[in-house]
Automatic annotation (TrEMBL):
Its main location: membrane. Residues 139-160 are annotated as: Disordered. It comes from Segatella copri. GO terms for biological process: siderophore transmembrane transport. Keywords: Cell outer membrane, Membrane, Receptor, Signal, Transmembrane, Transmembrane beta strand, Transport. GO terms for cellular component: cell outer membrane. Residues 139-148 have a biased composition (Low complexity). It is a multi-pass membrane protein. This is TonB-dependent receptor. NCBIfam families: OMP_RagA_SusC, SusC_RagA_signa. InterPro entries: Beta-barrel_TonB_sf, CarboxyPept-like_regulatory, Plug_dom, Plug_dom_sf, TonB-dep_OMP_SusC/RagA, TonB-dep_OMP_SusC/RagA_CS, TonB-dep_rcpt-like. One of its GO terms (molecular function) is siderophore uptake transmembrane transporter activity. It is found in: Cell outer membrane. It holds the Pfam family CarbopepD_reg_2.
Length: 1025
């Protein structure tokens, strides 16, 4: 850089270059001569030339997001602007715009990209434990699966409790499109389709701040903002990582030898001879795990020459190490008037079970250009293509998850001879064994590779907008935003083994299309009056439409072909189309006086086509205020207090997610009547009424109150405390009808629930001014839910999840008999029987056991602890998640403790503690062949305290130094990192199963296994050019 001083009309020409902290030239930086109106901007190389009067010696350089700098002119000027981290953190993305945090009046949490650096394949899983009041439960380790996402508890009994996901201002659909995924292994997780590397920040709106989204905001709103370009030369970033995953914890099952002896002794106790007991035991297993026919003698000991030759660890065979490859490339840059960000990514994620797999191809483009001084244009587009193979789940015999804990170890994986050696086929290959006592013609390792359960989803989310500056302070913005989903699914049962032979091969094909678009027009007026009074007004109108199309075709007799053209018989095809539209009018007013006193109010009216004429429109509103007490004169001089802000809000919002199309109508419409050839009169088809109309059906309505305080002191400690109370009224409820009506129930707005609780955030910059920087942040949530009304009903059993709904109780309250233990004299199981006067006696007859309330599945307290430590070029992040209180029912373990109720099904090692002699003290009842004592039926025997602490993530990264010699001319930054997920879980109870209590879900109940979240280790590299 050269300094040239040519005396022309007493002016001096000054030139130089402006850099950012990263060493890159700053494009579009403002350069002004102090004390004058003379100024210029830097060019695409960060260079500037400015003429200043000879008596002026200083210039000021500034750029948005950087600290301004005033310098004295000199030769060889190189000016570096530092990032204004305070300015960057001042603004937060909220509904339909941004707001200064200092003036924000609601309750919301922003999670920056720094906290989302854990190498998760999905954003929602990375949020677990990060935000107070937000519970993220990964109910399956199936790659690409969704999560149970709760913001301040559950506000509905039967509708969705998932929050609204808004991506770059676009409200998206979080519907479940899959027809072939089982249970919690859904493939339509919207957050799994977004590349985590593209995310700039996530804001979670938890109170009335969400009211501007109206009828979709009752469960909170998650606002996702993706990265955009910055002015400067093109910056290329490459990120690649490799992950290996494996099962975390297993059930401790009986060996085939132990199980053989247990069953043999039971047959002997039933009076069977030695030979019969041996043969019956082998018949129960359908296999002999020993090398001779009668391996046990009259005393239950091995005879000479007997040797165990089959002891299959089915969990080991089914759960295997899995690999994940993830690579992403982004290019960003811009000029003073334009910016762009483009990225593309590839994810190939294996599951830890035989056929679980997920591939994702993604691309993203964000652009913006100031076409003129008054017109800005922009667009963003996000494309993803996902291919997901899922496992069969639940109690199906084809489910490897079910079979992993139910197939006895005496069943061999392959066909074996008397010595346990595999019998080879004509080609010299091992042959899978399909004979077992649990599921006909099944092999949990072979079948997943013979059958197909595949979903392919193409999703496009985008927007195009134009923003016009009408006059000082007033802007008009119009935006068109499509959200398009194409989902094709393929389910094939092979003709040789499993479920398929009955059909000689079966094929089902599903095609669903959901085309949604949002057209939004807003006016925004922002003005500061008399320096101290700031006003921000927003008014808008929005039109939203969704057209959903479903098509099914299937056939049998397809043989080895996976094409319907080969089917010998076609199954009844099915198709339907639904359409929904909604128009909305909304507005918001915000006022701030010196950023000390802040007020805000919003109003939204939604009109939806899915309601009857009586309730097509719903109006939702909010009002809130905040007082920055620290800015008052009486606190200004309190040096140790850095910030003190009080907030209060009240508002309403709605939920329409559980409203099916045409529920208000009883006339013939798609999805209302069952139309089939079976309902006919002569040659004419008929119709059967399957629902009653309810023209009064309306939105589920929610009222939310919040009061909170934000604080920081000693320039080291910070935190917040919030109390909230939300009431959800008019909840959808299937009210039972008398049988003579011909229908079981009618859907009504009949129930009411309330949630209240506290949210606490505490943070500390433990080591701030030392070479080692350490920040620790804890969040804790205390939430209680209460059912207020069930339309006259006091008790409603929820048998699917062993719950009971009671007015005054929780919707998550367990309901089951109380387990007493084992009768030491007889070995019988014992439960409590409670008479009308409350007297408690024991009974060994399960039919006489009294069902009682046993506590709730939701925790008393939950949250996370996040540690960030840095030293020179090293960064260490540690995330600990915890759950205190609550109950979980382990139905999987219950199935393993049958005491002979389920013959042949595998047993847990705890069955070795079964009662055998009079006076014996044990917790396991006697084992009896074909037992009928219901000892493993629903009771508190298998109900556990859910308290646990999980080491969720540890990530260590190293930033390579900038002095890399010749590489420095090519590479502007590089980082390598290693990471571990789900490393260790501590349970307060004697937990028996996988180190993943989340697969039991919010309900805390799972009778059949899902894929547990694996333990994972990742190594990765990030390079910026």
């Amino acid at each position: 850089m050269l300094y040239s001083a040519a005396m022309v009309a007493q002016n001096v020409n000054v030139s130089g270059i402006v850099y950012g902290e990263d060493g890159e030239p700053v494009v579009g930086a403002s350069v002004k001569v102090d004390g004058t109106k003379t100024g210029t901007v830097t060019d695409v190389d960060g260079k500037f030339v400015i003429s200043l009067p000879s008596e002026r010696k200083k210039i000021t350089v500034s750029y948005l997001g950087m600290m301004p700098k005033t310098v004295t002119v000199s030769k060889n000027m190189k000016i570096t602007l530092n990032d204004d981290t305070r300015s960057l953190k001042e603004v937060m993305v909220v509904a339909y715009g941004t707001v200064k945090k200092a003036a924000f009046t609601g309750s919301a949490t922003e999670v920056s990209a720094d906290k989302l650096k854990t190498p998760s394949a999905s954003l929602d899983k990375g949020l677990a434990g990060q935000v107070a009041g937000v519970q993220v439960v990964s109910q399956s380790g199936q790659p690409g699966s969704g999560t149970s996402f709760r913001v301040r508890g559950s506000g509905s009994l039967s509708s969705s409790n998932q929050p609204l996901i808004v991506v770059d201002g676009i409200p998206t659909s979080n519907e479940e499109y899959s027809q072939v995924a089982y249970d919690n292994e859904a493939s339509s997780n919207i957050l799994a389709t977004i590349n985590p590397n593209d995310i700039e920040s996530v804001t979670i709106l938890k109170d009335a701040a969400a009211a501007l989204y109206g009828s979709r905001a009752a469960n909170g709103v998650v606002v996702v903002t993706t990265k955009s370009g910055k002015a400067g030369k093109a910056k290329v970033s490459f990120d690649a990582k490799y992950t290996t995953s494996s099962i975390a914890g297993k059930y401790d099952m009986m060996s085939s030898g132990d199980y053989y002896k247990q069953l043999y002794n039971a047959y002997r106790a039933a009076g069977k001879s030695v030979e019969d007991a041996n043969q019956l035991t082998q018949g129960t297993f359908t296999h002999n795990p020993y090398n001779i026919d009668n391996p046990l003698d009259a005393n239950g000991n091995l005879v000479d020459g007997a040797r165990l030759v089959v002891d299959t660890d089915w969990q080991k065979e089914i759960f295997h190490a899995a690999s994940t490859y993830d690579a992403n490339v982004s290019v960003s840059g811009g000029t003073a008037k334009s910016s762009y960000f483009f990225s593309t990514g590839y994810l190939d994620q294996e599951g830890i079970t035989p056929s679980a797999h997920y591939k994702r191809y993604s691309a993203s483009l964000n652009t913006k250009v100031d076409a003129t001084d008054w017109l800005a244009l922009g667009m963003n587009a996000k494309f993803s293509y996902g291919i997901q193979n899922t496992e069969v789940a639940g109690s199906a015999g084809a489910s490897p998850l079910y079979d992993a804990v139910n197939f006895p170890n005496a069943v061999p994986l392959y066909v074996v001879d008397a010595n346990g050696q595999p019998v080879l086929n004509e080609s010299g290959n091992k042959q899978y064994n399909f004979s077992n006592p649990v599921a006909r013609d099944m092999n949990p390792v072979a079948i997943p590779n013979m059958d197909v359960h595949r979903s392919t989803m193409l999703r496009f989310i985008g927007s195009a907008f134009a923003e016009v500056k009408l006059f000082d302070g007033l802007k008009f913005k119009t935006q068109f935003s499509p959200d398009i989903v194409y989902n094709n699914e393929h389910r094939y049962w092979n003709p040789e083994h499993g479920n398929g032979p009955a059909y000689n091969g079966r094929l089902d094909k599903y095609h669903t299309t959901d085309v949604m678009y949002t057209f939004t027009n807003t006016f925004n007026y922002a003005k500061t009056f008399a320096e101290d009074h700031q006003v921000n007004l927003l008014a808008g109108i929005e039109y939203w439409q969704s057209k959903y199309e479903y098509l099914y075709a299937g056939g049998t007799g397809v043989g080895d072909s996976q094409e319907l053209a080969q089917a010998t018989a076609l199954l009844s095809p099915n198709s339907y189309t639904t359409k929904e539209t909604m128009i909305s009018y909304f507005g918001r007013a915000e006022y701030s006086y010196k950023e000390k006193y802040n007020l805000a109010a919003s109003l939204r009216t939604d009109g939806s086509s899915i309601f009857g004429d009586d309730n097509k429109w719903g109006t939702f509103w909010s009002i809130s205020g905040a007082w920055r007490a620290k800015n008052e004169k009486f606190l200004k001089d309190v040096d140790w207090l850095d910030n003190l802000k009080l907030r209060v809000s009240y508002g309403t919002s709605g939920n329409k997610s559980g409203i099916e199309h045409y529920l208000y109508n009883r006339y013939l419409s798609q999805g209302i009547y069952g139309v089939d050839a079976d309902y006919k009169y002569g040659s004419d088809k008929g119709a059967v009424l399957v629902q009653l109309e309810n023209k009064a059906l309306s939105w589920e309505a929610q009222k939310m109150f919040n009061v909170g305080v934000d604080f920081s002191f000693l320039n080291r400690f910070y935190g917040s405390l919030d109390y909230f109370h939300k009431t959800s009224d008019g909840l959808l409820y299937k009210y039972p009808l008398a049988e003579q009506n011909g229908l079981l129930n009618v859907t009504m707005n009949a129930a009411k629930v309330a949630n209240h609780g506290w949210e606490l955030v505490l943070g500390c910059n433990v080591l701030k001014d030392s070479p080692v920087k350490w920040n620790i942040e804890l969040n804790a949530s205390f939430i209680k839910d209460t059912i207020k009304d069930l339309y006259g009903d006091n008790d409603v059993r929820q048998t699917n999840y062993a719950k009971i709904w009671t007015v005054g109780g929780s919707q998550y309250e367990f309901y089951m008999p109380t387990w007493v233990g084992v009768d030491s004299e007889t070995g019988d199981p014992l439960w409590y029987n409670v008479d009308e006067d409350g007297n408690r006696t024991t009974t060994n007859d399960y039919s006489k056991a009294t069902f009682e309330r046993q506590g709730k599945s939701t925790p008393d307290v939950y949250g996370g602890i996040h540690n960030m430590v840095s030293y020179k070029n090293f960064d260490l992040n540690v995330q600990i998640n915890y759950t205190l209180g609550g109950k979980v029912y382990d139905g999987i373990y219950a199935n393993m403790m049958s005491e002979g109720n389920t013959m042949g099904s595998n047993l847990h090692k705890d069955e070795l503690k079964a009662w055998t002699t009079k006076g014996q003290q044990t917790s396991v009842p006697r084992y009896v062949v074909n037992n009928s004592n219901s000892s493993n039926s629903l009771s508190t025997r298998f109900l556990y305290d859910a308290t646990n602490v999980r080491l969720a993530n540890v990530t260590l990264s190293y930033r390579l130094p900038s002095n890399l010699g010749l590489l420095s001319k090519v590479i502007s930054g590089a980082k390598v990192y290693v990471s571990g997920d789900n490393l260790f879980t501590w349970f307060s109870s004697d937990w028996k199963g996988y180190d993943d209590i989340d697969i039991y879900g919010v309900q805390g109940y799972n009778a059949y296994p899902s894929i547990p979240t694996p333990r994972s280790f990742t190594v990765g590299v990030n390079v910026t050019l």
